[in-house]
Structures are given as structure tokens and as C-alpha cells.
Design goal:
The structure holds 2 protein chains of 2 kinds. By secondary structure, chain A is mainly α. Chain A has 10 helices and no strands. Chain A is about 75% helix and about 0% strand. By secondary structure, chain B is α/β, with parallel strands linked by helices. The chains are: A mainly alpha, B alpha/beta. The interface between A and B is medium-sized, with 21 and 24 residues. The structure holds adenosine-5'-triphosphate and magnesium ion (MG). Adenosine-5'-triphosphate binds near residues 38 and 43 of chain B.
């Protein structure tokens, strides 16, 4: 009877992503400090990894000389143009697959056949079709971002709550209204998370295309550095790519924050 | 508008869900449909609302709906079916937009139905911020906004607490009083059935067949909670349903 009172044990919480500002940054900084320390102390050989501070210096020089922009400019244009084409076609076709059984039956096998092809293997073909200049690079990035976007989009459309669609029909909404006001907003979360994957693939293909035939561009810059075994420049290029990846992911995060506030 | 269901039967695969249902819902009356879980009440309602084809038989509507009626057959769903990305007002305007009702005209209708369902303070709330009872009131407000000639209500109050349910039942009686709509009201709750129904149809367990249709002549407004006549009716309904419910409980859903 006289047992001391205790708080009931807490067992809830967790399993819910929370915003933890700066955690990502801390991981980066700790890793860089570790490498810096290792390369200075000598337990990491200068042949295996460059010093982060040297890479930073290289980046600064790159920025100051203006060379950074002459590489970034073409790369960004290629990425934006190519993935805009691939993503918009992917969303369009994905929605059509999600809505029409005939399109689904006709195109899903095709998409499944295109998806696993290493797109970079097609570059020589694209060079013949679209020219050695920008055309083949746009096509490569577009095709590479297209397939994952299609798959994510039709999956997202399939996952839209059917009871909501029945509700729309029961109120006599037109087909177009149901698609615009129920299907597309309901599919948006899935489409956006597919976009994260697609854009990352777009960046990978951008570099691959630039390595195979470009004078300017981050891929070309990295290739030059690599063939001279200039580790500082090679890593400077890699840092730029990572930054590009973080930037696109952040932009999608902003879009999600803006349009998906309704999710709990 | 009057509704008749004629010899309606339906199967899902090998499972007969509804068998030879015939029912008449006179204009301006509420028919309550009770029956054990899984006997096909929601299925029947979907067929009445034109969301699904019955395999056999047909559903007929008689007479033209009033001219100010935007959507003659209007559902209130068991699971609310609110768009999570639209606010309370947005969910209601959804069903007005397709009729070209926007701006101040839409606002007037939305204000009116929100006031009638006591939701005026929650205009801009998102569904996830609302309790189950409030969500159902939004769904009822949305149905009222289109001025339905027939309301098809699928257990509209079963997600609500007893007090809210009592209040909303009074509200429904009030709404019916104001303009006597035709309705099919599916429920598990026999107290609701004897409170709101002009007729109560009892379905057997799957395959759902009509066991009995009971007429209740007491006017809706005169039905108080402890009325002995209604209590007796409710006891009678329970005696009809008891064995069905017991037997239905022993069956596998897809057996
Ligand atoms: N689209 C469908 N395809 C196959 N079977 C279905 C479908 N819809 C319903 N059923 C089955 O039909 C039967 C009747 O379902 P229904 O939802 O109409 O029952 P209910 O009377 O509304 O039950 P409850 O009271 O639990 O809501 C159930 O056994 C269910 O599993
Ligand atoms: Mg049901």
C-alpha cells in the first residue's frame, strides 16, 4: 500500500523526423577536421587524400580567377535544361500512366526496359543523333531523369486515396477537376520525393557527359585534374558537385515546406 | 425525390453481398438501414448513389430535383473523405467550384453551412487539426452546401462521442424540419435508427437480405430520448438483429 509513487515509464515518441538544425553541418565539419588533422599529422598520406585546407585554397583561387563560373555556368545550364525536360516529360507521362489503363499497359514495360540501361552507354548514340555539343548532353540528362520520375509519379498517382476520388465523383465533379484538385495534390508528396532521386541522377549524368566531351564544365574540370593527378583540384570539383546536390535537395525541401504543410 | 430499389443483387467474386433487395424511400422521408457489420450496407448505398453498378436489379429516382439543388444524390461518407490539403472552407468550396459558384456567392453558402454545423470558427483549419466529430461536421456541411434532394449518410455519427452525437441528431432533425429531404441513413446504432427514421429496414447478415421494414409514425420532433414506444421498437429491432450479429461475428470476412 505504501509503495512510493513513481512516474509511469515513458514509451512514446520517436519515429517522426524532426528538424535538427546544424546536425548535418556538424558531421561535415567533424569529418573535415579529422582529415585535416590526419593529413597534417601524417597518418593519412598526401597521396590518398588532399588536405581540406588546400582544397579550400584551390576553391578560392578558382573563384577569384573567374574559372569557377566558366565551369559552373555551362554545367548549371545543362543540368537545368536537361532535367527540366526529363522531369516534366516524366511527370506528364507518369500521370497519364496513373490515369489511363491503356497507357499503363503500353508504357510500363517500355519504362522498365529503359530504366536499367546505363544511360552513359548511349552517349555515343546521342552524339550522332543530337550533335556533339549541348544537344547530346541535354538528351542524356533528360533521359536519365525521365525514368525515375515516371516511376515515382505513377506510383504516387496509384497511391492517392480512392475514397477521395469517389467523394469527388459523388459530388459530380468533372473528370478534369478530380485530376486537378484531388489526384495531383494527392500525388505531390510522392512526386517530390521521386524528384530528389531524379535530380541526383541528373547531376551524376551531367558529370559523366562532361567527362566524355566538353571543354568547360565541372565534369571536364574534374577529368583534367584527375589525369594530372592533381588531388586538390579533383576534390575541389567534387566539393562543388556535393554542394550542387545539397542545393537541389534544399530547394526541393523548400517546395515541400511550401506545398505540403497539410501533412501531419 | 422518391427512390426505389428493385430486386437488387450483387456479388463480389464468389461472395454474394446483397440478395434481392427491394425498398422504397418516399420523398421527404428518412429510411434507416441497420444490419450487422459486413452485410453490405455501404455497398447498397454506393449503388443508390450511382458509384457502383449492381449486378442485378436497379435503382430508380422519381421526379425532378428542386431547381436550386446542385447535386441531387449527396453522400456523407463513413470516413469523412475530406481533402487533407484543403482547409475547412476549401473543402466546401471544392463542391461549389464545379458549378461555377465562386467569390461572394460561394462565401455566402460556406458561411451559412458552417454556421448551421457550428464550425464558423474553424473556417481556415486543416482537417488534421480537427477532431473526428468536427471532421464529420465538415462533411455534413459540405453535403448541405449542394442543397441535396437525397442525402446518403453512411454511419455519419459513429465516429463521434455520445454527446456530440445527441446534438448532431437534433441538428439533423432540425435540418430535415427546415426542408424535408429524402435520406438513407446507414447506422449500427438502433437508438439513432428509431430517432431519425420514418422507416427502419433491417438487413440480415451477408448475403444481405431485407428481414423487415418497420414504419415509425411518431413525428421526428416528438421523439424524445426516453419514449417507451420507441424503446419497445428498439428492443424489437435488437431482437431481430441479435442472432444475425452473433452469427456474423463468427464468420471470416472472406470466408
Ligand atoms: N470493392 C469490393 N470488392 C470486394 N469486396 C468488397 C468490396 N466492397 C465491399 N466488399 C465486401 O462486401 C461486404 C460488404 O461490405 P460493406 O462495406 O458494404 O459492409 P457494411 O455493411 O457497410 O459493413 P460495416 O457496417 O462494417 O460498414 C464485406 O464483406 C466486404 O468485405
Ligand atoms: Mg459500411
Amino acid at each position: 500500500m505504501a509503495d512510493p509513487a513513481q512516474n509511469v515509464p515513458f514509451r512514446g515518441g520517436g519515429f517522426r523526423p524532426e528538424a535538427r538544425r546544424g546536425a548535418g553541418l556538424v558531421v561535415f565539419v567533424v569529418l573535415l577536421l579529422l582529415i585535416e588533422w590526419g593529413t597534417r599529422a601524417g597518418w593519412i598520406s598526401n597521396l590518398t587524400l588532399p588536405r581540406p585546407s588546400d582544397v579550400a585554397t584551390t576553391l578560392m583561387e578558382l573563384a577569384n580567377s573567374g574559372a569557377l563560373w566558366s565551369h559552373m555556368g555551362p554545367s548549371l545550364t545543362r543540368l537545368v535544361v536537361g532535367s527540366a525536360m526529363g522531369v516534366s516529360a516524366g511527370i506528364g507521362i507518369g500521370v497519364l500512366i496513373g490515369l489511363f489503363s491503356l497507357v499503363r499497359a503500353g508504357l510500363i514495360p517500355l519504362v522498365a526496359a529503359i530504366f536499367p540501361i546505363p544511360k552513359i552507354a548511349l552517349l555515343p548514340l546521342f552524339v550522332i543523333w543530337f550533335g556533339i555539343d549541348e544537344g547530346s548532353k541535354y538528351a542524356l540528362i533528360a533521359l536519365g531523369t525521365f525514368t525515375p520520375t515516371v516511376v515515382a509519379t505513377y506510383g504516387a498517382v496509384d497511391n492517392v486515396d480512392r475514397t477521395l476520388i469517389r467523394m469527388g465523383q459523388s459530388f459530380g465533379l468533372s473528370w478534369l477537376s478530380i485530376v486537378r484538385k484531388i489526384v495531383l495534390p494527392g500525388a505531390l508528396p510522392g512526386i517530390l520525393s521521386g524528384l530528389r532521386v531524379s535530380l541526383a541522377i541528373g547531376i551524376i549524368l551531367l558529370v559523366a557527359a562532361e567527362m566524355l566531351g566538353a571543354e568547360y564544365g565541372i565534369g571536364a574540370y574534374i577529368l583534367q585534374a584527375g589525369s594530372l593527378y592533381d588531388l586538390e583540384r579533383l576534390f575541389a570539383g567534387v566539393v562543388i558537385l556535393s554542394a550542387l546536390g545539397v542545393l537541389t535537395s534544399w530547394m526541393i525541401g523548400q517546395v515541400e515546406r511550401r506545398f505540403l504543410v497539410w501533412r501531419s | 425525390m422518391e427512390l426505389t430499389i428493385e430486386n437488387l443483387s450483387h456479388r463480389y467474386g464468389d461472395m454474394t453481398v446483397l440478395q434481392d433487395i427491394s425498398l422504397r424511400v418516399p420523398a421527404g422521408q428518412i429510411l434507416c438501414l441497420v444490419g450487422p457489420s459486413g452485410c453490405g450496407k455501404s455497398t447498397l448505398l454506393r449503388m443508390v448513389g450511382g458509384l457502383e453498378y449492381p449486378e442485378l436489379g436497379r435503382v430508380l429516382q422519381h421526379g425532378a430535383p428542386p431547381s436550386d439543388c446542385l447535386n441531387p444524390l449527396t453522400f456523407v461518407f463513413q470516413d469523412f473523405a475530406l481533402l487533407p490539403w484543403r482547409s475547412v472552407a476549401g473543402n466546401i468550396s471544392l463542391v461549389l467550384e464545379d458549378h461555377g459558384i465562386r467569390g461572394s456567392k460561394a462565401k455566402a453558402i460556406i458561411d451559412d453551412v458552417l454556421a448551421r454545423t457550428k464550425l464558423s470558427d474553424f473556417r481556415d483549419a486543416l482537417p488534421r487539426q480537427l477532431s473526428g466529430g468536427m471532421k464529420q461536421r465538415v462533411a455534413i456541411a459540405r453535403a448541405l452546401a449542394v442543397n441535396p434532394a437525397v442525402m446518403l449518410l453512411d454511419e455519419p455519427l459513429s465516429a463521434l462521442d455520445a454527446q456530440t452525437r445527441e446534438l448532431l441528431m437534433e441538428d439533423l432533425v432540425g435540418l430535415w424540419q427546415r426542408q424535408s429531404f429524402t435520406a438513407i441513413y446507414v447506422t449500427h446504432n438502433l437508438a439513432e435508427a428509431v430517432r431519425l427514421g420514418h422507416k427502419v429496414a433491417v438487413l440480415s447478415r451477408r448475403p444481405g437480405q431485407i428481414r423487415e421494414v418497420i414504419d415509425i409514425t411518431t413525428p421526428l420532433t416528438d421523439r424524445a430520448a426516453g419514449d417507451p414506444e420507441l424503446e419497445a421498437l428498439q428492443a424489437h429491432l435488437w431482437s431481430l438483429m441479435r442472432e444475425e450479429a452473433l452469427a456474423a461475428d463468427q464468420e471470416l470476412v472472406d470466408g
